[in-house]
Structure formats: structure tokens, C-alpha cells
Amino acid sequence: MPDISTKPYMLRAIYEWCTDSGFTPYLAVKVDAATTVPMEYVKKGEIVLNISFGATSGLKMDNEAVRFHARFGGVSREIYVPVQNVLAIYANENGQGMAFEVSTTAAENPAPEAASESAASTPALASVPSAAAQASTTELAQHPDDDKDPPKKGGRPTLTRIK
User: Fold this and answer.
1) Does domain 7-142 have CATH number 2.30.30.220?
2) Cβ–Cβ contacts within 10 Å for residue 92, how many?
3) What's the pTM value of the predicted model, to 2 decimals?
4) pLDDT block averages, 10 residues each, the chain of length 163
């Protein structure tokens, strides 16, 4: 019997801990040919997704992938992330969570040039909060169109009702 990865179980456990604690669970994802995400929001080959109950519809986290629908710019999009492409899952409010290594064979049957590119840009996460702040010069050279501004803290904007 092949070994079953613990990664999908840990993803579900951290997600449950976040929601039970009143935190907003975020998923950091390595984007490649196997992922289905809005490419206009991808920065340096990665995307961070809010996977809270209020931000998603039809969230399903199984042993192979994380699937859900979410709105980007007011447009509903279908999101598909293979478990092996997940870099981290963490609470947005305090940064507590778990980071994972992403193997170079994360994509199903990647092209030879894509495999060498992903091997060259495999991130090494020391901790979840510092991973977003650091960028290597090779990643910047490979993605010249990416915005060089650091991501803003606090995630996406929220609407506050005042009565």
C-alpha cells in the first residue's frame, strides 16, 4: 500500500483550528500548470487565498486538492489547488499556521522547461510571515512584470456597516 501524505490532513486541521478560533484562514499557493487560479492576482509565481467561510463557496478539501468558488473583482471564479502546491496555511490575524515544502514535481507532467524553472525558484520558507516579505533576485529576474511593492497587511478590504 502506498504511503498516504499527512499534508491534506494537516491542512484540514489548521483550517478547522482557524475557524474555531475565529481567525481567517489563508492559503499560500505555488502556481503552476496544475492550479486553476486568476492569473492576474499571481505575484512571483505565488498567490495567497482567503479560504474562510465568508470568502468561499463550496469549499472542499480532500486528499488530492482544495476546490472552491471565490469572487475576484466581483466576478465568481472556480479555484483548484492541488495539495502538493500548497506552501502554507495560516491565520491572517496572527500568522500562526504551518508551512510546507513544495516538491519540484508538483505539477502533473510538467514541461521540461517548467520543471527546471520550478526547481530553480523553489522557495525556502523560514516562517509564514517572513515568506511574503522576502524575494530572491532570481525570482525578480524571471518575473519582470510582477509588482515590486510589498503586499499590504490586512488582506482584502472589508465593508463596515455604520448604523
Assistant:
1) yes
2) 18
3) 0.63
4) 86 95 95 93 94 94 95 93 94 92 56 41 43 38 48 59 62
